[in-house]
């Protein structure tokens, strides 16, 4: 009984703690906001900065306005703040979220710079590994997760170490933010391929029965470029 009362008193004490005072450390955050990998900027965009505290059983959600600024012609912005609560959310003048201050912004340093992008399109190199040329009747069809339809075709005959490029793909990650992707973000993508459109249609609608080399797992994909996808035809 005493233990339960002590626990309830501790919860009450923690819930009443005042976390509204910012840390006495001024952080300057700068960056640029881009629409795509060609770095077309979000120029003249109003940015409103809010302190955000996520709620829990012990505390309420909180949102407090900090300041505003406007990006210049290159998409550049700058603002300074004292760290407080969980993170800073940045909204445009319509109230849409542009980005949030995830790491490296929430750090022990006093300066942070980042380039943020909208969801981008990019390509991957494709390298053919083969021990025979096949024929001009053979065509490789390839797809990728988070993309609709065929993203790569190549007609035979093929050469060993022959390299081509996929069509433009969607960056595999999705979020609802205007420029929510940090320049250093990386993800993993699954590619799948077959020779002939009939076989490709089977694997693109039901990949479960298939295995490598027709399924290529965990190909690294960064915001504006992707690693090489190896299509291994040896032994087929």
Give the strand line-up of the largest sheet: 4-1-7-14
User: What's the Cα radius of gyration?
Assistant: 25 Å
- The topology string of helices and strands comes to HEEEEEEEEEEEEEEEHEE
Tell me the overall shape: elongated
Q: Which secondary structure elements does this structure contain, and how are they paired or packed?
A:
Blueprint: H1 2-15, E1 27-34, E2 46-53, E3 62-70, E4 76-81, E5 87-91, E6 97-100, E7 111-117, E8 121-122, E9 125-129, E10 139-144, E11 152-155, E12 163-165, E13 169-170, E14 181-182, E15 186-195, H2 197-205, E16 215-222, E17 229-232
Parallel strand pairs: 1-7, 9-17
Antiparallel strand pairs: 1-4, 2-3, 2-5, 5-6, 7-14, 8-13, 9-12, 10-11, 10-15, 15-16
Report on the architecture of this protein:
This protein has about 240 residues and is mainly beta. It is built from 2 helices and 17 strands. The chain has helices at about 1-15, 195-205, and strands at about 25-35, 45-55, 60-70, 75-80, 85-90, 95-100, 110-115, 120, 125-130, 140-145, 150-155, 165, 170, 180, 185-195, 215-220, 230. Strands 4-1-7-14 form a 4-stranded mixed β-sheet, with no helix packed on it. Strands 3-2-5-6 form a 4-stranded antiparallel β-sheet, with no helix packed on it. A 4-stranded antiparallel β-sheet has the order 11-10-15-16, covered by helices on one side. Mean pLDDT is about 85; it is low at about 5-15.
């Amino acid at each position: 009984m005493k233990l339960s009362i002590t626990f309830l008193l501790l919860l009450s004490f923690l819930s009443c703690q005042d976390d509204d005072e910012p840390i006495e450390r001024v952080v300057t955050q700068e960056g640029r906001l881009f629409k795509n990998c060609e770095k077309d900027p979000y120029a003249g965009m109003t940015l409103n900065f809010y302190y955000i505290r996520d709620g829990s059983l012990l505390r309420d959600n909180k949102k407090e306005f900090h300041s505003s600024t406007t990006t210049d012609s290159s998409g550049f912005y700058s603002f300074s703040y004292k760290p407080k609560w969980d993170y800073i959310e940045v909204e445009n003048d319509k109230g849409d979220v542009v980005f949030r201050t995830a790491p490296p912004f929430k750090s022990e340093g006093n300066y942070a710079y980042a380039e943020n992008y909208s969801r981008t399109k990019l390509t991957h190199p494709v390298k053919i590994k083969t021990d025979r040329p096949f024929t001009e009747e053979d065509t490789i069809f390839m797809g990728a997760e988070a993309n609709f339809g065929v993203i790569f075709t190549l007609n035979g005959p093929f050469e060993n170490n022959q390299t081509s490029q996929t069509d433009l793909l969607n960056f595999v990650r999705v979020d609802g933010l205007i420029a929510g992707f940090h320049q250093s973000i990386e993800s993993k993508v699954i590619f799948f391929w077959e020779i002939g459109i009939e076989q490709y249609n089977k694997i693109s609608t039901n990949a479960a029965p298939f295995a490598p080399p027709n399924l290529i797992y965990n190909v690294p994909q960064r915001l504006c470029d992707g690693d090489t996808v190896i299509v291994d035809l040896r032994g087929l």
